[in-house]
Each structure stands twice: as structure tokens, then as C-alpha cells.
Design brief:
This is Mur ligase family protein. 36% of the residues lie in helices and 19% in strands. By secondary structure, the protein is α/β, with parallel strands linked by helices. It has a 9-stranded mixed beta sheet, with helices on both faces. A 6-stranded mixed beta sheet has the order 10-11-15-12-13-14, with helices on both faces.
Length: 427
């Protein structure tokens, strides 16, 4: 790509904007917007010299976790990996993450880039980034205000898959991905979960199945990696006849499936260099991903925070709870434009809620009320809610729990004095 004399200015002003945004408390998109305005080819320029190219991770749920997992597996094999650990998965967010790791000519200093990419955007930026491999996780009910129909997302992913240079890594238990797979023109590698293990999830795996569509299952013999057991946070994964045990950073069947996806992607990217032992060890030593079952100490109290994005996300996290929370706060705001989907969620495992907060605190309390579950206080103001939450007696066993949508997760963590998401994986 021809040198752009404005690229050094784009890098400098982008970095300055990044510092300014961090000082004011966040904002991952603006620095990328500034840089791309000065250099519209910033994305392609950043990755053009990477020896091992680019990987996209996309789908309805699990993108951030799987991106972190794939990154860990590759680093466990000695590679220098760039990733957009800030969670900004739109073009401007990806560029913002890159600004801290590019030289003045705009080139990333890494062997490979593992990028979380929004499922609607992946097909639009693939021509610039030229991904070698795409990891397609699932097609689930999510962002109906944006996507209207999960089938539309499946078509986006099909368009993207056709642009991958070498291969796609696919969830064998997702009906929509199995449906579109025959139209993909690159090699396919499958990951998944044993059907008997999947049956332990009380609400079932949340794969959206198009009405009237019957698709043959992918047999175990054609799956590169498959979850064959999960006890607590220890997942057993069968990999080409070998067995690996992975200590997951958080509880839940969805995290085990994401680990199988990461091992499959690592194998497809590294070939004969791949070591199952090294991959499993890398996954077992990971910290929790931002907001996904994080445990934090606040004023001497242990607090766990669980991010819920949509119906499948909340269902899987509820299934993973070992018991009814002793102290619970539930937070939701305008980041969930239409929260009525919660009417379809069985909240009985929570037993009730002590505090609801965020601009939609009253609506959340209504959902609990309709299921005849007790509601403590409705406190829309986050700072006031945190003070009340910390003042509640600590449980005799376990820890206090917060369930929040993405925007509230960021806001509540900030109030509790926790570090921001920016730079978590590349600093």
C-alpha cells in the first residue's frame, strides 16, 4: 500500500485523542474516527505487514471471550498477537485499539491480529483486512432493533465467509451455520459440544433454529474439538482423539464451547506447530474477560459481575449459577433499547432481586414482579445504587452478584473504582 504522508499525523492525533478520552472516563470510538478521517486506509495499512495475517471472530454471542481465548492460545505458542481487547468491534473501535500498537507509518508490530468484529460489519471490512480465517460462533436472537431477523445475520456471515482466504471455523451445533456452510468456498473446521453434555443445560443451547428448516448434524468424527464434559469450571475437550482438560476463567457451558472454538482456530492457524498441551495450558491460566464473571474486591467485599446482552446470554448465565444469589443487583439502561425480551426469561433461579438500577430499573423490577419474585429497592441512579448495594450485609458464603447490560457494566465498574476495558490485552 502506498505511503500516505498523513498517516503519521493520523497516528499522533489519534493517540492524543485516546489519552484525552481516557482522562474523561472512556470512549473507544472517537480516536479511531479521528485517525480514519485523516487516513481512510488505516485498517489495511495496519495489517499489511503481519507475517501470519488476520483472524476475525464474529457471531451473536461469545465474541469477546473467544477473541481473548484465541489470543491466549496463539501467545501460548510464542506468537506476538495484536487484539482489540477494548471490545470495540466496529471499524473505528478497532482502529482505536490499534493506535497504541502501530508505528508512525501505521504498521502493527505483531505476528498476527485476532480481531473481534461485529457480525454485520465483518463482511464490510474484510476486503481491507483480508482475513485468513474467520471464527463463526453462532446466530442467536440479538439486537432485533438492528437486525430484525436472525436469518439476516446468517446471510451476513455467509457473505463474510466467502471472503476468508483460507478457512472458517464453525460451531457444529448452530443450525444456521450448518445451513449456510455448504455455500462457503473455503475449508471448514468444526467445533462443538457432545449432545449428552449439552442436555445438562436446563434451557437448552440457545441456537436460533429457522422454522421448518431441518439440517443434518455434524458427526463427532468431523469435529476438530468437542466439549465432552464440564464439572464446575473444568472442561474436558476431545481433540482429534486426544483429551485436554481446561480450567475455565468463569463458570458456564458457553465458556467451554468458546474454549473448543479457540483450540480449533489455533490448530487451523498453526498446523503442525500446534500443541494441544500448550493451548490447554494457555486457556487454563487466563484471567476472566472484562465483565464476564469477573470477581472484584470493593471496600473489602467480593463482588461478581455478569454481563448479559440478550436472551441467550442471560439464559446461559442463569444456567451456570450454582445457587440463588444471596445479594443481587440487576442493572439495565438504554443500551438495551427494548428490554421486553426479559418477559420470556425464567428468573426464578434468581429468587428475587435486592436492587434494580439504571434508567430501566423500574421496568426490570416489573419483570421480576410479573414472575412473583420479591423486589427490594428501585434506584435508577447508579452511584446511589452502588452505595446501597455495598451497605447490604455480605452473604455468609459466596459473594454479592451484579447482572448488567454492557453499558451498565462499564458505568458500575467505573463507580466502584475498577480499571477500564481499554488496553486490557495489549498493554
Amino acid at each position: 500500500m502506498a505511503f500516505n504522508p498523513l498517516t503519521p499525523l493520523a497516528v499522533g492525533l489519534g493517540r492524543a485523542t485516546r489519552v484525552a478520552m481516557r482522562l474523561r472516563g472512556g470512549g473507544s470510538a472517537m480516536p479511531g474516527h479521528v485517525a480514519r478521517t485523516l487516513d481512510p486506509n488505516f485498517l489495511g495499512r495496519a495489517v499489511e505487514r503481519l507475517p501470519r495475517g488476520v483472524v476475525f471472530v464474529t457471531g451473536s454471542n461469545g465474541k469477546s471471550t473467544t477473541t481473548a481465548y484465541v489470543t491466549s492460545v496463539l501467545r501460548g505458542h510464542g506468537l506476538r498477537v495484536f487484539t482489540n481487547g477494548s471490545g470495540g468491534n466496529m471499524p473505528q473501535g478497532i482502529v482505536s485499539a490499534m493506535l497504541g500498537d502501530v508505528d508512525w507509518q501505521g504498521h502493527l508490530n505483531a505476528d498476527i491480529a485476532v480481531l473481534e468484529v461485529d457480525e454485520a460489519i465483518c463482511r464490510l471490512i474484510a476486503p481491507a483486512l483480508k482475513p485468513r480465517v474467520g471464527v463463526l460462533l453462532n446466530v442467536q436472537v440479538d439486537h432485533l432493533n438492528r437486525f430484525y431477523d436472525p436469518a439476516r445475520v446468517a446471510n451476513y456471515l455467509l457473505d463474510f465467509a466467502k471472503m476468508c482466504g483460507e478457512a472458517v471455523v464453525l460451531n457444529a451445533d448452530d443450525t444456521n451455520l450448518r445451513r449456510i456452510a455448504p455455500e462457503m468456498v473455503v475449508d471448514r473446521a468444526w467445533f462443538g459440544i457432545d449432545s449428552e453434555v449439552a442436555a445438562r443445560v436446563s434451557s437448552g443451547l440457545p441456537s436460533y433454529k429457522a422454522p421448518g428448516v431441518e439440517i443434518d448434524e455434524i458427526p463427532a468424527s468431523e469435529r476438530t474439538a468437542q466439549v465432552v464434559d464440564l464439572v464446575g469450571q473444568t472442561a474436558t475437550i476431545e481433540f482429534h482423539g486426544e483429551v485436554a482438560r481446561v480450567e475455565l476463567p468463569a463458570r458456564g457451558m458457553h465458556y467451554a464451547i468458546d474454549a473448543a472454538a479457540a483450540l480449533t482456530a489455533g490448530y487451523r492457524l498453526l498446523g503442525e506447530e500446534f500443541s494441544l498441551e500448550a493451548g490447554a495450558r494457555a486457556l487454563s491460566t487466563m484471567d476472566t474477560v472484562y465483565g464476564r464473571g469477573e470477581i472484584m474486591m470493593v471496600e473489602g467485599q467480593e463482588i461478581e459481575i455478569i454481563l448479559m446482552k440478550n436472551p441467550p446470554s442471560l439464559r446461559m448465565n442463569l444456567d451456570a449459577l450454582e445457587k440463588k444469589p444471596d445479594v443481587l443487583m440487576f442493572a439495565m439502561d438504554e443500551g438495551s433499547p427494548d428490554p421486553s425480551w426479559m418477559y420470556g426469561i425464567d428468573l426464578s433461579k434468581l429468587g428475587g432481586v435486592d436492587i434494580t438500577t439504571g434508567t430501566k430499573a423500574a421496568q426490570v423490577a416489573t419483570f421480576f414482579g410479573y414472575q412473583h419474585l420479591p423486589v427490594g429497592k428501585v434506584i435508577p441512579n447508579n452511584a446511589e445504587a452502588i452505595r446501597a448495594f455495598l451497605a447490604l450485609p455480605a452473604p455468609e458464603e459466596g459473594r454479592k452478584l451484579i447482572i448488567a447490560n454492557y453499558e451498565q457494566t462499564i458505568a458500575l465498574r467505573r463507580i466502584m473504582g475498577q480499571s477500564g476495558i481499554e488496553g486490557k490485552h495489549n498493554s
